[in-house]
Amino acid sequence: MKPLYVLTIHAASWAFVLAGANLHASSAEQRDPCTKIFTRKVVFELTYANRDLIWFGDPASPTALVYAKPGARPIATDMHVTTLVECNRSPGRHYMHEARIAADNQTRIVYAFTEDCEKVIGVIDHLGRFAPNQFYENHRELLPTWPADASALTYDSKNNTLYYEVEIPGPQLSESFDFLPLELSDAERNSVDGRFSINFASSADGAVARSAVVSLVFRILGKSLTLAKATVPSVFRRADAQLGSFDNTTGTYLPEAAYRAGAGTDQVAQPSVTFAFAGEFTSSVRSDVESLIVVASRRPADPLTASPAKITIDGNFDDWRNVTGVDDRQGDVAPYLDYVPDVDLLEFKVAHDNQHIYLYARVAGQVGRSYSDGGRSYFYAYMDVDQNPDTGFLPTRDDECYFGVDIGDDCEVQFEFVNNVLRKTFYGFCGLGGNDNVLKRKVTIGRSQYGRFDHNGVERANYKSEYIFRNGITEITEDLKLGSSDTIHLAISPDGREVEVVSAFTGFLKDAGGRPTLEIGRTIDLAVGMECDSKAYPGKTRWAADSTIAIRGYRLHTADRE
User: Is this model's pTM higher than 0.90 or not?
Assistant: First the structure.
């Protein structure tokens, strides 16, 4: 994770390579190369307020048509690059994504996702060697995708994943998604940082009537380069439109009826409609090779240091487009969970200033959407404030955490939706002492468990506590309980796919010496998880959840320090 305030740029030439994070060849691939075919597609997204659209037909019908009014401008823009790679032979490695690996002193514990629950199947020692346990050897029916001979497994420390070599007759297909900011490097593969923006020119701009145009612009050293562009279609089909409708003022979703003519929706709470359509790279981009290569004619002069990112929690996500983060695979799910796109995490980012920490997440569906009669949805930011996996709790399925992470979870920033309405924002503390110490706001970092009671109903001494902090007062909370922290605020993008959250440092607890658990000066590891019931989707009955890999070594330095 790059520091928020340090974006120093050095470029040897005005020729850059857009290196997709998911496209780096493994060592096995390099030993046994294959002929690859790269097919890339630029996808732009424009979100309009419903008041700026003209509908022909009922918006509930997939055959309805919708037009943007002359001169209408989108209220939000976004884009991504979809890459399809076709290889004529096996990629060489099969990664075991159906597991997670968590540090524990000098070893790493391997947890496998099974139909029963998450199970420990072995350990990886300090030399990177995997040793299976008796569960691995005696419960093969619960591990159908794992090789019977565990010696075939190798540990990849960079990706913190086990894999084994495979030979599958090709062709093999893989698809990846890259969101802003795209990874850039120069022709020598040196990293290059600049500023991305999505520019929109409406049909009413200029003296001559023309079609609206959207473009991706990269700016560095005072120079601008258009990387991709598209002509905005004049008409869209309802089947190609996404109804967003989240209202950040009321904290709820608007019903589909609000899109119909004469609905009389408050102008402040206008529902939104998002259109996705294909664009194209400009002539300066070559896209049929392993890395997107962009070549411009001029050479930049002096290096530039980018200005700090400033985040505002307002539902406008342009201020996040140039903040780097981590990606998460689309469609990943544990076998004991149902898949729900509303909690399928695709991205996680973090930023801060001297008084707040800012969190960002993108999902494949819509954040907070749930069944309208008792449905629930949750967001968790897991924070390892001492970078020690032996403190806090290590989330696992057995601890009632439905899709675990591989860091020691000391404290959390959370929110809860119920019946498509934001119920509350709140905190979690996962250290010593339980609720009594949390209420005193003097706590001790240490190993704890998720639930207050063990499997025999006996109360634990050290367990996760959830609390709200409002008007300077701490109060214990629980699921479905009303009451929200005034130190945590959030906003959701108009299309519902992105969420930004801010927490003031004052909302976090302090130790016996008066030091906050989270403050400027700390270096932390953190990840994001989301979960919900699946009742909004017909035929699904189980819980749904996902979590991201961790951002490690994030330094909370002061704003005036480079």
Answer: no
